[in-house]
Amino acid sequence: GDGANALWLEFAGRTATLHGQLLIYLGDLAAAKSVLGEALNIGNLLMEKDPDAVLWQRSITSKSKVLLGRVSMMEREGADLLRMVQEAREDSSALADRDPNDVNAAGNYATALEYSITAGEQPQDRWMDIIELLSPERRRLSPEALTSLARAYAAVGDTGAARVITARLQAAGYRHPDFIRLLADYPTLVDVK
Fold first, then answer.
1. What DSSP designation does 161 have?
2. For the chain, what percentages of helix, strand and coil (3-state, to nearest 5) are there?
3. How far apart (Å, rounded) are the C-alpha atoms in residues 34 and 150?
4. Could you give the C-alpha distances from 139 to 36, 89, 136, 167, in angstroms and in order?
5. How many angstroms separate the first and last alpha carbons of the chain?
6. What is d(CA 86, CA 109) in angstroms, rounded to the nearest whole number?
7. Which pLDDT band, with edges at 50, 70 and 90, does 36 fall under?
8. What's the pLDDT score for residue 62?
9. Potential cystine with 62: which of 91, 126, 134, 172 (Cβ 3.0-4.6 Å)?
């Protein structure tokens, strides 16, 4: 039936999103872009079938857009980056508005906003928006969202708060490209033991 098909599509979409994330980590950006494009198509198909399914929108569609924005940023494709980041930010913002307790949607929104600020699409004072959104949820955030929060703290000059986060992520062995880029951009955040 249609419900079983939707379940398989959801599984395929989530798997493709995770696969794309792994390909980004491995540095195969062309393959990541292709796989994430497939995930986005699956997410869009699921959203057409059930527009109220927040889980699909958050875990497949919105996440794919954030990751595609990350690929574009890593490739430095300006127009593609701005479009994907804007779409991801709008999607994540809408999802966060629908469920204010959804820390994943807040993290996706903050990551998309971080990319927008870094790309020059949003003013530098928007770093405080990320801090205000994520800092109350610090204990529940994903490593990606914690990276965005640490970058925001560093950007506003609060290296102490940023260093607490980066030390925790380094101790856990976190090696995501965004985290590595953060440490390269702010060498004082590197935890040297």
1. H
2. 85, 0, 15
3. 30
4. 28, 22, 8, 14
5. 57
6. 10
7. very high
8. 78
9. 91
Q: Mean of the per-residue pLDDT values for the chain?
A: 80
Task: Report residue 192's pLDDT band, with 50, 70 and 90 as the boundaries.
Answer: low
Closest Cα partner for 40 from 9, 3, 86? 9
Q: What is the pLDDT of residues 109-132, one digit of tens each?
A: 787 778 778 777 778 898 998 898
The DSSP code sequence of 26-86 is HT-HHHHHHHHHHHHHHHHHHHHH-TT-HHHIIIIIIHHHHHHHHHHHHHT-HHHHHHHHH
Taking only the tens place, the pLDDT of each residue in 47-81 is 888 877 766 666 788 788 878 877 877 776 545 55
The SS3 of residue 175 is coil
Cβ atoms 124, 155 nearer than 8 A? yes
26-44: string of b/e by CB count within 10 Å (b at 16+)? eeebebbbebbebbbebbb
Could you tell me the CA-to-CA distances from 99 to 55, 92, 106, 159 in Å, in that order? 11, 11, 10, 31
Is pTM beyond 0.85 here? Answer: no
Residue 191 DSSP SS3: coil
